[in-house]
Amino acid sequence: MSITPEKEPLLPRIQVENIVKSIKKGERIDGRGLTDYRPIEVILNPITKASGSSLVKLGGTQVIAGVKLELEEPFPDRPGEGVLQVHAEFVPLASPSFEPGPPDENAIEVARVIDRSLRESKAVKLDALAIEPGKIVWSVYTDIYLVDHQGNIIDTSMLASMLALATSRIPELIKGENGYKVDHTKYVGPLPINTLVATVTMGIYNDVIIVDPLLEEEAVIDSFITIAIDESGRICGIQKRGMKGFSRSVLDNTIEIALSKGRELVDLMKKILNNPSEYMKPLVSE
Amino acid sequence: MKVLVADRQLVRPGDCLAILEEGIISNEIKRYPDKHIYVLDNKVYSDVLGIVYIEDKDINVIPLESVYYPRKDDTVIGIVDSIGVTSWSIDIRAPYKAILPGSDVIEGFNPITHNLRNYLDTGDLILAKIAIFDRTRDPMLTTKGKGLGKILEGVVVEIKPSKVARLVGKKGSMYNLLSSKSGCDITIAQNGYVWLKCKDEYVTKVLIEAIRLIELKAHIRGLTEEVRVFLESKLGEGK
Amino acid sequence: MSGKPVLIRDGLRIDGRKPEELRPVRIALGVLKNANGSALVEYGNTKALAAVYGPREALPKHISLPDRAVLRVRYHMAPFSTTERKSPAPSRREIELSKVIREALESVVFTSQFPRASIDVFIEILQADGGTRTTGLTAASLALADAGIPMRDLVIGVAVGKVDGVLVLDINELEDEYGEADLPVGIMPNTGEIVLLQLNGVLTSGEFKQALDMAYKGVEQIYKTAKEAMYRKYYKMFEEVR
């Protein structure tokens, strides 16, 4: 059952007016342009135990994504394919308004939007992950851990998930008499990836489109759209959020912006993946 | 008393700051919460991560971070959080929500004829004083007083509550410096807000920069002078 | 990998350490923007992230106490933290460890200063390689210090184990899994008081005393690293000015 949420965070009216005034002038309260992303910082492989992992900071929002591969039965209608699972946790560390407990509708929505974008674009080559078709396949678990919330959870989580998947490795399989066992300490090769996918999240306020909304902006704006773009510029996922509608022309504009910003994010990921050792820094810097 | 640390040294919870020469050796902890120290077995310890200030025989630790804890007579800035029948609930960034009674704001208040929402609505900012607060109930505010009430103009800036004292300065020295150099109307609230009313946007921006500088370098000696130099370079010799 | 590995060879442990040697300890404070206080602590490959919110309103109201703050502590492991993926739902082990850690922190936090409020401590284990509850405990106490919550002292945790008959300090996952004893300890570094103590396994009383001595030495070293981390956070604040 979904219930109308309380208005969180509570912003003073003056600040709300400030944000609205800025948006009308084409500015943001943090000095960015309407379509600018905040600075992005990436650390690859922070969780060495995982098959792949990444820490992404988008402005003040921080997400850790961890990928683990386990052996499982395939779906009966897709016997020759591995299984993709995406799960998101909004842990209470991340915000004063998060309570411990199972994922709420927001966390579930984020996980499912990212899952669909990865699945529809066939980002992960699932048909290469069948060990014994119909019986045993690799199940790829992507766990999204939001640890600090300053707005735009989806784009941060998508970047983290994609980078974690793109740097994941397949563990060694040992065949015994009783079946297969996984040796999580040895890897045989990279997780096969078909394409990179990025999401572009925009807030819409009075027909003005704002890319990468801040936490404070999210409290004021009540209409959002997230569009997933793959390497070839195809749209592989859309999710409209928020309790307000928008016009067709606004929608057309968001698609245009998404294609352009999506390309930028994909290029950024390519740059990082071409030079991974530069991004493998320790979590704690001296 | 034998002092073991230097003035303005960084200290941690459990660090021994001094040894008392006289007195009864007691294995019961005696706390001095306002000074952030406690005494055990004749030794003085810090109870927070902060900077120790030593003046004659007086030891005081100022925490690097802290949440605002209400005190009677404090000036606070709050946001109207929700509206009841006879009072407003105000968020003052403290572990407790504060209450502002309707009768405090409206002359001859009558819940039947007066609708609280017509006077203060959710999201409104107010400047108020803490009239009553004790350990058994939530703080009660009052807006009866000069300058208190709904905030209609200017800019309200959030600062760390642990930096409020530095922003005021010894005997108000920092506050006076900021006011005189900027010509702005400045109200500092104990719960970590500063209300600025300046002539133009540029001065407001410079003043906010000065406030951030003070927040960051709160425990450095010579800060007042540094702020003076900064303000003069941006605003001239003063208005 | 079946069968028990050899844990001590030529007096050295499986990762090359001597019995009384700690893993490399890395600590950083103030790593999260939203939390009132936070700390990231690594003992070798075990990584714990702790955040503190509070003192804040105790909600729901019925959990609040009239004369002191309640402590709410959650110890939780991320699904990608373990060798095999762990379901995110809290396990019985996580529930027990949340209690044990909370009780350790109750002995140091001056909760009577904030009646009817709540101090919330959230510990997430990002990677598990043995000693997660003690790494988490250290992270939690540093996050409390980072938040300015008044305390008697910090709490530093370390686990001592017994492998192939030898007592070892700061066990890793293999030593925990295949060893004969696991003794996690939480100690106040300035007073020496013990606030967390459990034993999983068997020790003679002589071994127990030795193990405790080892723990104290380990705590002293970790405390030194913690002190440096607190200085670094303080001095880092100045670099942010320009």
TrEMBL record, chain B:
CDD domains referenced in this protein's UniProt entry, alphabetically: KH-I_Rrp4_prokar (cd22524), S1_Rrp4 (cd05789)
SUPFAM superfamilies attached to this UniProt entry: Eukaryotic type KH-domain (KH-domain type I), Nucleic acid-binding proteins, Ribosomal L27 protein-like
SMART domains reported for this sequence: KH
GO molecular function list: poly(A) binding
Domain K Homology, first and last residues per copy: 151-215
Annotated keywords: Cytoplasm, Exosome, RNA-binding
Recorded superkingdom: Archaea
Record-level GO BP terms: CUT catabolic process; exonucleolytic trimming to generate mature 3'-end of 5.8S rRNA from tricistronic rRNA transcript (SSU-rRNA, 5.8S rRNA, LSU-rRNA); poly(A)-dependent snoRNA 3'-end processing; U4 snRNA 3'-end processing
Location, primary (coarse class): cytoplasm
Family listed: Belongs to the RRP4 family.
Protein name as catalogued: Exosome complex component Rrp4
Organism lineage: Archaea, Thermoproteota, Thermoprotei, Desulfurococcales, Desulfurococcaceae
